[in-house]
Amino acid sequence: MTDRLSSLSTSLLGVLRRVTGDAQLAYESDPVPLTGGFWAELVTFRLADPPPGWAGPLVARVMPDAATAAKETVFQADIADQGFATPRVLASGGPADGVDGRAFMVMTLADGHPLLAGLDGMGALAKLPSLAHRLPITLATVLAELHRLDPTPIENGLDTAGVARPGLDTMLESLRATADALGRVDLATAAAWLQAHRPEAQPVVVCHGDMHPFNLLVDDRGATTVLDWSAAMLAPRTYDLGFTSLVLAAPPLVVPRALRPVIAAAGRALSRRFVSAYERATGRPVDAVSLAWHQGVVCVRALVEVAGWVAAGTIEGRDAHPWVIAGHAFAARLHDLTGVEVTSR
Q1: How remote is the C-alpha of 277 from its chain's centroid?
Q2: What confidence score (pLDDT) does residue 130 get?
Q3: pLDDT, tens digit, 9 for 90 and up, residues 184-223
Q4: Is the dihedral of CA 199, 270, 40, 161 positive or negative?
Q5: Is 183 exposed, middle or buried (0-12, 13-18, 19+ CB in 10 A)?
Q6: Distance from the CA of 97 to the CA of which of 35, 73, 176, 201 falls in 20 to 30 A?
Q7: Which pLDDT value is given to residue 126?
Q8: Count of CB atoms situated within 10 Å of the CB of 41
Q9: How far apart are CA 225 and CA 217, in angstroms?
């Protein structure tokens, strides 16, 4: 066990003893790191002689930003309470009473494997026929179910926790200001264009904000579980559709140059099928203008984050991040929408 993992394990056990009220609580199996995600640190473990409701494999999600952690916890806890398939939250807390001075959430371990588990660029090419049928329908069905949830309990939970309700207006203004502060006039101008060209207002729903195949687990029975609510929003449904359709249309896969046109064409087809599947699942059409605008918001969100890594000197080692892989495609999409010449870095 590394020093870092040992420190986290010791701190986590102290937190678990406090929240359960059991000073003798111990691990049955020591925490083991979980792969996946680029923001939070995750470990899985079991407790010996656990209290009621704490049996079986558990996951601790340790998060570096307290505000985002508080928002994520409210979303995930209430969404699970409404019967949506996501891990049940057992305990949570902020940095002051957290794990190694960071916010945390303890939850049940979801069964299943990522929808695209073990898939590399060549694997994606070989499995395109089956993916073309299964992937867009699964993603669309899950989002249609999510968008039927009642956002009111989440709004109330955020208010009670003292967490600002995350919405598009606030996010866009923050992205514009951040781009400006980073000296990225192109991205700030594109964000301002989006602010000035808002589509017709739509009802607010519960949005995941990061719905891609690796945040969706599928078990042996075909049942799905959604992970990672750090980007959750209260926004029009088209925001979620914009994110997922964009990621499908510009797959963040590393493939040989000769195969890129094939993957790109397949991605565009998957994106169209996803939107059509969502329309069938909800019985409602998706407005193309609104969809394009929300895709633009996602492009700005991704490229501003990459610009922050460049400015901070932390871009090295992030070559596998989807925002980096798909950066050129996002910049081109944003230019086509706004007319602003945008670079990927």
Answers
A1: 21
A2: 64
A3: 999 999 999 999 999 999 999 999 999 988 899 998 888 9
A4: positive
A5: exposed
A6: 35
A7: 59
A8: 19
A9: 5
Query: How many angstroms separate the CA atoms of 182 and 243, rounded?
Result: 24
Length of the chain counted residue by residue? 345
**How large is the C-alpha radius of gyration of the chain?**
20
Handedness of CA 284, 287, 288, 293 (dihedral sign): negative
Amino acid at 231: A
Burial of 316 (0-12, 13-18, 19+ CB in 10 A): exposed
Neighbours of 106 (CB within 10 A): 24
pLDDT in tens, 68-86: 999 999 999 999 999 999 9
Q: What is the 3-class SS of the chain, one letter each residue?
A: CCHHHHHHHHHHHHHHHHHHCCCCCEEEEEEEECCCCCCCEEEEEEEECCCCCCCCCEEEEEECCHHHHHHHHHHHHHHHHCCCCCCCEEEEECHHHCECCEEEEEEECCCCEECCCCCCHHHHHHCHHHHHHHHHHHHHHHHHHHCCCCCHHHHHHHHHHCCCCCCHHHHHHHHHHHHHHCCCHHHHHHHHHHHHCCCCCCCCEEECCCCCHHHEEECCCCCEEECCCCCCEEECHHHHHHHHHHHHHCCCCCCCHHHHHHHHHHHHHHHHHHHHHHHHHHCCCCCHHHHHHHHHHHHHHHHHHHHHHHHHCCCCCCCCCHHHHCHHHHHHHHHHHHCCCCCCC
CA pair distance 144, 106, nearest whole angstrom: 27
Distance (Å, whole) CA 49 – CA 93: 23
> What per-residue confidence (pLDDT) applies to 116?
67
The predicted-structure confidence for 166-188, as pLDDT tens digits, reads as follows: 999 999 999 999 999 999 999 99
Asked if residue 165 lies in contact with residue 320, where contact means CB atoms within 8 angstroms, the answer is no
Burial class (CB in 10 A: 0-12, 13-18, 19+), 258: exposed
CA atoms within 13 Å, Cβ hemisphere of 134:
11
> Is the pLDDT confidence value at 344 over 70?
yes
